[in-house]
Amino acid sequence: MLYVVKRILAVIPVLGVVAVVVFLLLHLSPGDPAALIAGDTASSDDVERVRQLLGLDRPLYEQFVSWLWRLLQGDMGVSVFTGLPVTRMIGQRIEPTLWLTFLTISFAVVFAVPMGIIAAWRAGTWIDRALMALAVLSFSLPVFLIGYLFIFGFSIKLAWLPVQGFRSLSEGFIPFIQHLILPAVSGGLVYMALIARMTRATMLEVLGEDYIRTARARGVGSRRLLLRHALKNAAVPIVTTIGLGIALLLGGVIVTESVFAIPGIGRLTVESVLRHDYPVIQGIVLVVAAVYVFINLAIDLLYTVLDPRIRY
Q1: What pLDDT band is residue 269 in, cutting at 50, 70 and 90?
Q2: How confident is the model at residue 28 (pLDDT cuts 50, 70, 90)?
Q3: Cα angle 180, 261, 192; round to 5
Q4: So what's the pLDDT on residue 71?
Q5: What pTM did the predictor assign?
Q6: Which residues of 181-200 are buried (b: 16+ CB within 10 A; e: fewer)?
Q7: 3-state SS, one letter per residue, for 183-252
Q8: What interhelical angle do 126-140 and 86-121 show, nearest 10?
Q9: In 10 A of CB 124, how many CB atoms?
């Protein structure tokens, strides 16, 4: 219990640092943010209006206190270009990103963990070499290249799946999965390779332990030996890799959403950066960073379930 409380309390200062860094994004960017947002053809009055809208005409500490107070109330500001609240804009785009992230990491885990276990169990055989060669190939290809190859093959040539777009689950499961299967697989191949290699390396280390040899000598079956004895003790590094994969996926989803024209957080980030819409950029970075922090917290808490010794 003490370990859990300490890990939860440790999140608070991290979130504080994240808030400070996100706030300073507007002020550390090169050039005058107000002039960049107003555009090259803007007059000095237009620039001044943008500066007042963003509150840049006030002292820095006042800006931070005001921004932090609004943030604690759930107000991330208003988009300079659309006039919509940032929370509303993120809320409108977050569903595709969440589904894409979930399906991508699910695909990676479902295939990667068995691949790593089999490769470790058959270490040195052609099965091991074939699985690891597939993992290396998947990890070596860029996500956008895999995506374009899938579009060319399955969407253009075979016409089995739509080229781009997103359909909500409320519109039916078939159109929902048809629009997400290609981006999920193209993104999941990279993380599948990463998780498979980590699973193999960790399982090889555990399979060499004395208690595994003892269990094998006692006649424990292969399935029980691998899943109950070896995998359980190798789970901590594997779970860590999966957690890091989820965090990395939140950043890499920009590429996948751009390739498949999915209206998610990644597309919104690109659009906001191109338009220098700083309030939206700040909101997106804050949300992604907070998700990253809480994923790490969840992994730390999961350690105590997988290995009770960690709490001490």
Answers
A1: confident
A2: low
A3: 45
A4: 80
A5: 0.77
A6: bbbbbbbbbbbbbbbbbbbb
A7: HHHHHHHHHHHHHHHHHHHHHHHHHCCHHHHHHHHCCCCHHHHHHHHHHHHCHHHHHHHHHHHHHHHHHH
A8: 160
A9: 8
* 123 Cβ neighbours under 8 A, 6+ residues apart: 200, 204
Tokens of 161: 């799946």
**Per-residue model confidence (pLDDT) at position 229:** 66
pLDDT digits (tens, 9 = 90+) for 89-128: 888 888 888 888 888 888 888 888 888 888 887 777 888 7
Tokens of 128: 């091991």
Residues 304, 311 contacting (CB under 8 angstroms): yes
Planar angle of CA 294, 299, 302, nearest 5 degrees: 125
The mean pLDDT of 220-224, rounded to a whole number, is 69
Sequence-distant (≥ 6) Cβ neighbours of residue 59 within 8 angstroms? none
Find tokens 């237009």 and name the residue. 46
Find the largest Cα–Cα distance for the chain. Answer: 84
The CATH fold assigned to 93-311 is MetI-like fold (1.10.3720)
Rounded to 5 degrees, φ, ψ at 59 are -60, 155
